[in-house]
Amino acid sequence: KKNIVILISGEGSNLQALINAQKAGKIRGKICGVFSNQLNAYGLERAKQAKIPIQILEAKTQPDHIEFDLNLIQKIDSYQPDLIALAGYMRILTPTFVQHYKGKILNIHPSLLPKYPGLHTHQRVLANGDKEHGSSVHFVTEKLDGGPVILQSRISVFPDDSEKTLMERIKVQEHHIYPKVVDWFMQGRLEMRSGIAWLDGQPLTEKK
Ligand code: GAR
């Protein structure tokens, strides 16, 4: 079985969706470790409930960003991962980290990329009066939220929406699309080659 390591910083609802999918046999792989850069991340409780080993590394104990990521690599490599899935991991990864796991890191980002990389996506959607919003699963490259997109989900934005209601509706969809993409990867159907995402040998994205 292939090994999955999941990185979180907070709530962990996407982690929960991945745990549930694994339990239901919908992900052909094993979540063998959960890592958090936040001591109080609620997702750590979810991992404990599911009897998945957890590790914590806080920036305050390791302020140098490269040292932090080298430390992280060392911890993660002990699980011999085939895939690193970022699930609300809110710390930017160094090129050192990204190169070490080239083509093996997935992220879920709450916007219709390439729109709104970075933070506060729901706020920016509201401020710009966008009529639609969504979430994207993509391969991680050195460019922040800039790697090739694999799968997106869309929602309509209503006049009475707030950041909170948008976040809630987006998360419901994330919990469907993320496990699906992770399973594609586990089945060996998905890869990143020449800067493009490929599913079943077909290109999914234009090269940027
Ligand atoms: C998710 O909506 C995810 O898309 C977003 O954080 C949330 C985490 O929720 N990720 C980012 O903003 C990455 N920059 P969760 O902890 O409940 O899974």
TrEMBL record:
Pfam families: Formyl_trans_N (PF00551). N(1)-(5-phospho-beta-D-ribosyl)glycinamide binds at G12, S13, N14. It catalyses: N(1)-(5-phospho-beta-D-ribosyl)glycinamide + (6R)-10-formyltetrahydrofolate = N(2)-formyl-N(1)-(5-phospho-beta-D-ribosyl)glycinamide + (6S)-5,6,7,8-tetrahydrofolate + H(+). The active site is at H109 (proton donor). Pathway: Purine metabolism; IMP biosynthesis via de novo pathway; N(2)-formyl-N(1)-(5-phospho-D-ribosyl)glycinamide from N(1)-(5-phospho-D-ribosyl)glycinamide (10-formyl THF route): step 1/1. PROSITE patterns: GART. GO terms for molecular function: phosphoribosylglycinamide formyltransferase activity. It is an enzyme of class 2 (transferase). Keywords: Purine biosynthesis, Transferase. The record marks D145 as: Raises pKa of active site His. One of its GO terms (cellular component) is cytosol. Residues 2-182 form the Formyl transferase N-terminal domain. Gene3D superfamilies: Formyl transferase, N-terminal domain (3.40.50.170). GO terms for biological process: 'de novo' IMP biosynthetic process. InterPro entries: Formyl_transf_N, Formyl_transf_N_sf, GART, GART_AS. Its EC number is 2.1.2.2. (6R)-10-formyltetrahydrofolate binds at M90, R91, I92, L93, N107. HAMAP family: PurN. Belongs to the GART family. Catalyzes the transfer of a formyl group from 10-formyltetrahydrofolate to 5-phospho-ribosyl-glycinamide (GAR), producing 5-phospho-ribosyl-N-formylglycinamide (FGAR) and tetrahydrofolate. PANTHER family: PHOSPHORIBOSYLGLYCINAMIDE FORMYLTRANSFERASE. This is Phosphoribosylglycinamide formyltransferase. It comes from Hamiltonella defensa subsp. Acyrthosiphon pisum (strain 5AT).
